[in-house]
Amino acid sequence: MKKLWDKGYELNSVVESFTVGNDVVLDQALIPYDCRASIAHARMLGKIGLLTAEEVEKLTGALETIIQLHRQEKFTIRPEQEDCHTAIESFLTEKLGKLGMKIHTGRSRNDQVLTALRLFYKDQLTVCDKQVEALIKSISAFTEKEGATVFPGYTHMRKAMPSSIALWGRAFIDSMEDNRKLLRLALELIDQSPLGTGAGYGVPLELDREYTAKELGFARVQENPVYVQNSRGKLEITILHALSQVMLDLNRIASDLILFSMPEFGFFELPDEFCTGSSIMPQKKNPDVLELLRARYHVIIALESQVKTQVSNLISGYNRDIQLTKEPVMKGFDITRAGLEVAELLFRHLVVNRERCEEALTDDLLATERVYALVRQGVPFREAYQRIAKEY
Where do the domains of the chain lie, and which CATH numbers do they carry? Predict the structure, then answer.
């Protein structure tokens, strides 16, 4: 099996396995995106006269076939093919002969990979944004139903002042709205086409980069070819940071619910179908789903840290180290989407124990209110504070 970079010699099998890594598995997700980019590229080559109309039609037809085979789970990437890009070009060459060899004209695997990833990232960010929106609606419905219920607010893990379900829930709504801004910022930065920059120093052809950018739905062309390569990792960090902020909120929601659903508090109750049991203690109903939701935030920040360290100290231009930034981002999307799905479901079924909330409203929660009652009577704040403090 010839590589895209074939030089006429066989690569050592151990080295081959080491350099390919698990791209064969990861790249299954990129197949339709690489095909879309290749279709746009083929049309552009036709537009500038490097392919005939008939050749463009044959290439785009074969690429559409690959997309269909992928949907049917019938398009596979063999280990010796290294990645989806080689598998796709091999398919084209097998079906179309020398015409299949023309698809790589004006491209490097560097900008080819980047284009497929950018398209994949755009879709994933859009899905996450929609899931955050769905979670906001779920929390809003929950607060509309239970918002009037009052329960203690805490500072330093001690009772502080009265709070409410509405105040608690809306805090996460506001934060999730900010998270949507971060996701959209990441999307805005990603939304620039790298196609046509080759290996990082341009291509000695008059390519129509504006055409391919428009064909692929990018907002603009990423102009500087060196920065195209330097932005790999940098933009992945931006994505993972946005995802980490979403997961931070899910972490805090989980932490609150673990605490407040304890029998000792009892403010919230998890439905039985959300709880697991103990293999030895028959009375146990455990909030495993919340504990895992809490823990997965730490996985996301570890992935962000992984990418940050992988891309530091690299000289400008492409370095193979960057290959290792793909998997952390893919994992990050999977973890965040699963977490958002669970959280949205949770708020649709979460139960508030109004009686336990009311029982927890002890007199000390009103201490600050009593201070300000004296202030309204003309007592200086510090004097009023001291008067009330003596009672506790």
Answer: 13-104 (1.10.275.10), 109-361 (1.20.200.10), 363-392 (no CATH)
